[in-house]
Amino acid sequence: MHRPGGTSAPMARALTIAGSDCSGGAGIQADLKTFTVFRVYGMSAITALTAQNTRGVSGIFPVSPEFVRAQIDAVVTDIGVDAAKTGMLASREVVSAVAAAVRAHSISPLVVDPVLVAQSGAPLLEPDGCAALRDELLPLAALVTPNVPEAAALLDMPVRSLADMREAAARLVRAGARAALVKGGHLPDGDAVDVLHDGRDLRELRAPRVHTSATHGTGCLLAAAITAGLAQGRGLHEAVARAKRFIGVAIAAGLPFGGGDGPANPLAWLEEQERNG
């Protein structure tokens, strides 16, 4: 945890370093909603503006690496950060700037969500950025959270089965991440199974698959929920398990907005907690 001057904070603080989704379902907006749902103070460093909606991405306006770094510096040196996550980083230069900031400020724990392609298929990281993310950010990550296509791209290996997911998680740890969560939502049929490698052992997290098109932003929401748990001092397994329950609730209560893949609903978690007392 980074607390300026060694002071304790009245509320856990989490920073998201990611792109803006003007439709509110993913990116910075989804992350901040999730932090708030878990009663964590959320802050952001915006890496790119996107023009997007439930149908897809129609435009990207990148933020300069220097200004991304300036945002991170401003937050860390004043308010402090108990945990951080990365999402869309857009370019190799931004990946390098973020990695340098994480090292300079000793930002930890860091959750790396390797956002490579939008749900609609639009690329969100330049091709050479993938290698930079693997080489520069993974060694700084307390946890990396790729879905099946992202794990395949990071490792240049096919990921088509649960056995492949287990191997991918182990390889990501060998590549430098302290832990890896490979998400299996893209695999067909059966339960939604994620594979967690904590640096020592493999564990499978299963949940019933929810058949819905309201899945926009689910990767962002899950990584943000894990980050919130880590910011609050929860252990890795506890933070991941809670986030897995959260994303199931958010997907099941997905919102029928727009003409494409509607957004998952993080606020449904609060309603779930109220019902359960």
Distance, first to last CA = 31 Å
- Gross morphology is globular
Mean pLDDT: 93
Strand composition percent: 15-25%
Our Rg estimate from Cα atoms comes to 17 Å
> Strand order within the widest sheet?
3-2-1-4-5-6
Order of helices and strands: EHEEHEHEHEHHEEEHHH
The CATH architecture: 3-Layer(aba) Sandwich
How much helicity do the residues have?
25-40%
Number of domains: 1
Describe the structure.
This protein is α/β, with parallel strands linked by helices and 277 residues long. It has a single domain, classed as 3-Layer(aba) Sandwich (UDP-N-acetylmuramoyl-L-alanine:D-glutamate ligase), CATH 3.40.1190.20. It has helices at residues 27-37, 65-78, 92-105, 127-137, 148-155, 162-174, 218-231, 236-252, 268-275, and strands spanning 13-21, 41-53, 56-62, 83-86, 110-112, 143-144, 180-183, 192-197, 202-207. Strand 4, helix 3 (92-105) and strand 5 form a beta-alpha-beta unit. The longest helix is centred in the last third of the chain and has 17 residues, at 236-252. It is globular, with a radius of gyration of 17 Å. The model has no long low-confidence stretch (mean pLDDT 93).
Short structural description:
The protein has 277 residues and is an alpha/beta fold. It has helices at 27-37, 65-78, 92-105, 127-137, 148-155, 162-174, 218-231, 236-252, 268-275, and strands spanning 13-21, 41-53, 56-62, 83-86, 110-112, 143-144, 180-183, 192-197, 202-207. Helix 5 (148-155) crosses helix 6 (162-174).
